[in-house]
Amino acid sequence: MNIISVLIDHRINAANVLAEFSIREYLKNADSMIGNNPFQRKNVKSSGTVYSLLRDDLKQGCIIPPIVLALNVDPLEGKNSSSEKDIYKDYIENNINQAIILDGLQRTNNIIDANDELIKAKDIEALEKYQNYKIRVELYFGINKIGILYRMLTLNTGQTPMSIRHQIEILYSDYLKYETNGIMLIREIDKESKGFGRYSFKDIIEGLTSYLMQDYLTFDRGDLLENIKSLEKLSKENQGADIFKSYLELFHAFLSRMLKLLNDWEYNDIDCEYILTAAPFGKNALAIFSKSQVMTGLGAAIAFLKDRNLTDFNKIISDIKLLKFNGDSKSAIYYMLFKLDDLKVNAAKIGNAQREYFYYFFRELFNPEGDSFLSIDYSIESAFKRFRQNN
To answer: How far is CA 366 from CA 187, 258, 274, 317, 321, in A?
Structure first.
């Protein structure tokens, strides 16, 4: 293995090292590197004509575009050294099995497959010649998760990129491994039941995505430009803070306050003075305010208020302690359920309409310049007025 050059990628603040590997050297760690990257798409089966041609070309010493790898540690960080190439070479030789593939998964699979074909053919001379051929490899050092996603998006422009929701899900998958401040996140496949402090990971991700996209609608599209813009925003906001944790703790604090104010309230047909056409949106405070429609509305509303310098995560968390009902709390919730029922009857897309309503609800609730600031019942009413004005 030979180091050709060392450059700094100032966009993602990471060192980029160009190296030459023999195919033999690369193959030693190829399987490990393929398994290291949770961001990568599944392998495209390589039995097609194009990949068959690529394998034949590789066996003849064809030069392919550099494969791009990443390591999250920079051995030169904080050091001044005149022998940087030697330091990087030594680190690569001992740690390349920990690298992940940013660009070149299919090339790597075909390098492996070509090698296997020669072994199967028992052509020792051709195998030896093949394994001595050189390939170019770029390695990024000291690159974090956001940098990895950013580079993958910009390198793989020929593919349909992952949706921003999927990217955020990957970035914060570590939160699935432990409890944080008494909060547990649950996957769809987990047998854990949801409840106060036990939230759907998918729903929280959708809420944060709505914050980043500044839109209460759920996003599954993979638009490259929108994804890059969202990652740029996430990268800027994550400096010195964990935006996922901030959103999660804010939602948890809001739900905790609502449970306290409603004090074990349960829906009862007898107490409800309104006639509902279907089952209520929720039959208790937890069921109402822990739905994904609430989380996405909350995320989009925070983005709206924050962009206008009206509030921020810390201020909202502080303000939550002051939330109140100006009138009877039970009457206000029954009124909300009645209005949500009316919305369900008339909306073309019920889920989207519910998200839009909660977006306005939180905008009213946490806007310090509004008439409904910190008043739950006032916000319930004014949010429906705004909804009707816009629909």
So the answer is: 30, 14, 28, 10, 12
